[in-house]
Predict the 3D structure of the following.
Amino acid sequence: MAEAVKRRAPAQEAWELLGKLFGETRHRIVRVSAEFGLTPPQLFALRTLEPDEPVPMRALATALHCDSSNVTGLVDGLEAQGLVERRGAEHDRRVRMLVVTEHGAQVRSRLIEVMREVPPQLASLSAEDQRALRDVLRRALG
Amino acid sequence: MAEAVKRRAPAQEAWELLGKLFGETRHRIVRVSAEFGLTPPQLFALRTLEPDEPVPMRALATALHCDSSNVTGLVDGLEAQGLVERRGAEHDRRVRMLVVTEHGAQVRSRLIEVMREVPPQLASLSAEDQRALRDVLRRALG
DNA sequence: GACGGATGGTTGAGCCTGTCAACCATTGCC
DNA sequence: GGCAATGGTTGACAGGCTCAACCATCCGTC
């Protein structure tokens, strides 16, 4: 390999390009959270909670990869806005089940819808490119 | 369109798959930052600063999309570790130029190298898939 | 050349996340 | 019944981030 142009592996370049998309996405999350009157961690918490399927706080903590004491605060915020409720579990009086309220379910579904919006850079790809991207990502992450 | 299977557009599915990759990357950033004794914002700050090209703090603030008072704290941390230096600018005595130290440049380049490491999901793709991914992303983000 | 507005940077208050240690109530096992 | 383990809360602490206030300095204008 002569000392010519330093060749980057294709995956290398792809990863760098994805880095740009990541950066923009971070800002997007902050913006969307604010639109819903939430902080980003609160948004992730609400998105994680399935309506119709109450879970103990511990489960949310592990799902969010954080400490139990952390979710206490997050749930405090969500509960203050009437998005979730703490409810005692009948089989174990230590645990508190998290129940998404009616209002919380509505906010959550709108929120998920907005988060699912494909960013313009991807949306403007040709149909073939979109399929190709999906197929490659399926093989990588499916 | 019969009420059959709800079809997702290819870009839609691709975006959701990227969401998974994003989540894992967030954790990775936290981990790498800790390895270098930095916090994630400090890591981004150091990565942004080019050695051999001192910039005023204001420039770093805009590059990081945050407030000036914020970078004051970040630079305090980096300076405490001897990674960057504040140096007065001769043409304007208000501005403080940020200079990456010798040590800072070393840490920075190691750090960038680690961050550039292609995650295993992408690295394990076939050569064709890697090229296809790169080409599509070039068209989307180039 | 002095004045007044704009600019770069710091400080402090305030709110948020996130971790850790300590604690309480409860459970389940021996 | 005793006792370790568990779920959740609280408080302390380290940060990030924004805003308002402030100081020093610059610069255009009169």
